[in-house]
Amino acid sequence: MTDRTAxxxxxxxxxxxxxxxxxxxxxxxGHLDQVTxxxxxxxxxxxxxxxxxxxxxxxxxxxxxxxxxxQDAYTGRFGLSPAFIPxxxxxxxxxxxxxxxxxxxxxVISIDDDNFPHADEDFFAEHAVVCRDDVDTPLVQTExxxxxxxxxxxxxxxxxxxxxxxxxxxxxxxxxxxRQESLAPVHINAGLWLKDPDxxxxxxxxxxxxxxAVTAPSVTLGAKAWSPINTQNTALRRxxxxxxxFVRMGYEIGGNAIDRYGDIxxxxxxxxCARHLGGAIRVGTPVAEHRRNSHSYLNDATREWACIxxxxxxxxxxxxxxxxxxxxYADTYDxxxxxxxxxxxxxxxxxxxDAVRGFFHQMAHCMRQWTRACRTIDGCA
Length: 381
Description:
CATH class: Alpha Beta
Number of helices: 10
CATH architecture: Alpha-Beta Complex
CATH topology: Spore Coat Polysaccharide Biosynthesis Protein SpsA, Chain A
Order of helices and strands: EHEHEHHEEHEEEEEHEEEEEEHEHHH
Largest sheet: 11 strands, mixed
Helix content: 25-40%
Distance between the termini: 31 Å
Strand content: 15-25%
């Protein structure tokens, strides 16, 4: 795996000091010339972020930090209007994903600006498993159909902890997880986090957790072991980017603009496509230290609530009923987009309001715009 190349993608409205930690890790383990970094700035990003990129470039790392005008010009090459990737949104990381895809890198590593790689773990090598078809790791299955990845961690105080995006219908039930050694073609790798785990705002309000240690080896998820996947410390092989559009938030449902779950929707969707194509999802290493940025958890909970309800409605269909087709990620993602629209139109309950249906139609339309952009990059649009 030493000859593989990676693209590191993140967006920020802060001074991304995390890049210094990434630089040190890649340099320490001899991967600096194998990784190109794409820092996607937004309107609120300070000049200090651009200066940090210049400093790291002077130290020998290929760090790219396109201006907003350069970002719009870039996405315009693929027929995407500036409105497709809105400003003042973590949706901006989609620009970096497209750049990573066009670069031809073997895999992409997606991080948040507050997730720091550990100095004593080879961040590149652990994520590079997404380029292998023979990963020897336990395959986990559960009786609930979902695997709580937080059970792989120790916490400072007792009580169950669940990751953001874990369905409430599957919480506080006996998973009775089983593990069996297996060789797997890994397409997606989700690293865990110490200190501040990725939990929803309700959890942070009621029982804020602190992760102190990883207590279980990495596993791959079986057919009966789904899990939310975020963008904080996640890697995908290049092909999977064709189904990894970061879903646009901001749609108004029930009087509130939904937010903070764009990566959770995208994580479940790419996971469904990977499973259809025979790819495995690995969870565990590398472990990042999540030095959580400042949050207003009451505001976060308000914006997350509709997304939580949406997932409760969609996940039973996605995990047990969806019938996907296609032999590539882009084709499978297109099939998924049409399936989501059909679900929204045929499902009748008080929950499925015109606003909810409108959100799913907008999302499906954007998913297909994404695959067209990827096909343009591949020269087959």
